[in-house]
Design a protein that fits this description.
This is Endoglucanase. By secondary structure, this protein is mainly alpha-helical. Helices cover 45% and strands 4% of the residues. It is built from 18 helices and 7 strands. The strands form 3 sheets. The protein has a 3-stranded antiparallel β-sheet with strand order 1-2-3. Strands 4-5 form a two-stranded antiparallel ribbon. A two-stranded antiparallel sheet has the order 6-7. Strand 4 and strand 5 form a beta hairpin. The longest helix has 22 residues. It is globular, with a radius of gyration of 21 Å. The N terminus is likely disordered.
Length: 492
């Protein structure tokens, strides 16, 4: 788990649309999106915490974190490790769950047999969130495991011996950002399960309403309340207003209660950023709300459509309003650390908005540039294809996809021999030598994991110690599930 420190950057676009879009062959075929979709969802089984089910497919993983919550005399087992570490951070985990749910809602009919696996991946998180929301009165549990202690160790989740500290927000120590995101996750997931398990869906939605009410009533940032347990790992750099906005947008979609729209209008949040991530939700909320304008022709949502299109205008490389840098190889480049998280999140918004546009043959303009569904689709496909191997290094940034992919992923469980191969515990320091610092490939292949990705020069060193490029994360994968289903050649 790398520090997710964000910096303010103003980057000038230096490549024209034509110079990389057509020279790199966006029309190339050859990618098996269905295989990539299957693997992108399988990855989540490698990130599971808790007691693993009999149908667990990532066989080198075992049970872990079985006493999580015991320090507070509650059950907080389950959920996901966010990246290559053994900590459960609810802020990025909830965003991961919201994005998995959204992509499943939008593309479930295109997923075929992977729909059931996507639902299982979502439920692994929501079962845990239900525990977090109900384990104790006036407390919302938001994390397990001391990140500062954990990051000093290199050991498997199955035999970790670091303290499993418990973190929560409360009326006296608020966390509107993490609570707002958890509410969004529960509301979005309720829509996924509404047609297959109405009782569970109702339970999720009821808890989403309760958690969101908590977020609104007790306002404050969880970064301030939790201090070093949140920062610099998953600080809420953008504040909590975007999570209130995002949470309300999802509750509006799940309930149709117009009071959530009225609430959004009171926030006065008119930010139109040029990125979308686990920290900054505005662009995602705008696209989600724009659906009612584009698809539903509801004039009350026209302002959100305009904001969604302003966002797209900031991303498109030949737009007069672009503020997005691209590498020479054609990859969206936002920030040096874990750049592919921004690529997959932005691409998810692009494909979803293109889908809305296609349903009504909607177009719009970025200045003199006419933007059609195809305009956006070409850019989104370029990003997906780059990740799968159409890039200067001819490398797939999805582990286990293709033949040339990262072998030295910054991930404890992947880099250390499994319990079956090495039953003895490594202890806190035992994994560093010879497993962390070695140039050897990881003994366990974390199939489907998408790593942080190449640098601005399209170069990827494939070094385990270079966490900002070689570490996978749940939120990178959650966002790419939709685009992969969208571009599945047999469906699209």
């Amino acid at each position: 788990m790398a520090f997710r420190v964000k910096v303010s950057v103003c980057i000038i676009l230096f490549l024209s649309f034509s110079s990389f879009f057509f020279s790199l062959g966006t029309a190339q075929g050859g990618f098996n999106y269905r295989e990539a979709l299957e693997k992108s969802i399988l990855f989540f089984e490698g990130q599971r915490s808790g007691k693993l089910p009999p149908n667990q497919r990532v066989s080198w993983r075992g049970n872990s974190g079985l006493s999580d919550g015991s320090l507070a005399k509650v059950d907080l087992t389950g959920g996901y490790y966010d990246a290559g570490d053994n900590v459960k951070f609810n802020f990025p985990m909830a965003y991961t769950t919201t994005m998995l749910s959204w992509n499943t809602l939008e593309y479930g009919k295109r997923m075929g047999p992977q729909l059931q696996n996507a639902r299982a991946a979502i439920r692994w998180a929501t079962d845990y969130f239900l525990k977090c929301a109900n384990a104790a009165p006036n407390k919302l549990f938001v994390g397990v495991g001391d990140p500062n202690a954990d990051h000093k160790c290199w050991e498997r989740p199955e035999d970790m011996d670091t303290v499993r500290s418990i973190y929560y927000v409360s009326p006296g120590s608020p966390g509107s950002d993490v609570a707002g995101e958890m509410a969004a996750a529960l509301a979005a997931a309720s829509l996924v399960f509404r047609t297959v398990d109405r009782v569970y869906a109702k339970k999720l939605l009821g808890n989403a309403v309760k958690v969101f009410r908590f977020a609104v009533q007790y306002r404050g940032s969880y970064s301030d309340s939790l201090g070093s347990a949140a920062c610099p790992f998953y600080c809420s750099y953008s504040g909590y207003k975007d999570e209130l906005y995002w949470g309300a947008a999802w509750l509006l979609r799940a309930t149709n209660d117009i009071s959530y729209l009225n609430f959004i209008n009171t926030l006065g949040a008119n930010d139109v950023p040029d990125l979308f991530s686990w920290d900054n939700k505005y662009a995602g909320a705008h696209v989600l709300m724009a659906r009612r304008s584009v698809v539903g022709n509801d004039k009350r949502f026209d302002s959100f459509r305009q904001q969604a299109e302003n966002f797209v205008c900031k991303i498109l490389p030949n737009s007069p309003y672009t503020s997005t840098q691209y590498t020479k190889g054609g990859l969206i480049y936002k920030l040096p650390e874990e750049n592919l998280q921004y690529v997959t999140s932005i691409t998810s918004l692009l494909t979803t908005y293109a889908k809305y546009m296609a349903s009504k043959k909607h177009t719009f303009n970025c200045g003199s540039l006419l933007v059609t569904e195809k305009t956006i689709r070409i850019l989104a496909k370029r990003q997906v294809d780059y990740i799968l191997g159409n890039n200067p290094m001819k490398m797939s940034y999805m582990v286990g996809y293709g033949t040339n992919y990262p072998r030295r992923v910054h991930h404890r469980g992947s880099s250390l021999p499994s319990m079956a191969m090495h039953p003895q515990s490594f202890g806190c320091d035992g994994g560093f030598q010879p497993y962390y610092y070695t140039a050897n490939a990881n003994p366990n292949i974390l199939v489907g994991a998408i790593v942080g990705g190449p640098n601005q020069n399209d170069f990827f060193p494939d070094e385990r110690t270079d966490y900002s490029h070689s570490e996978p994360a749940t939120y990178i994968n959650a966002a790419v599930v939709g685009p992969l289903a969208y571009f599945d050649s047999s469906k699209h």
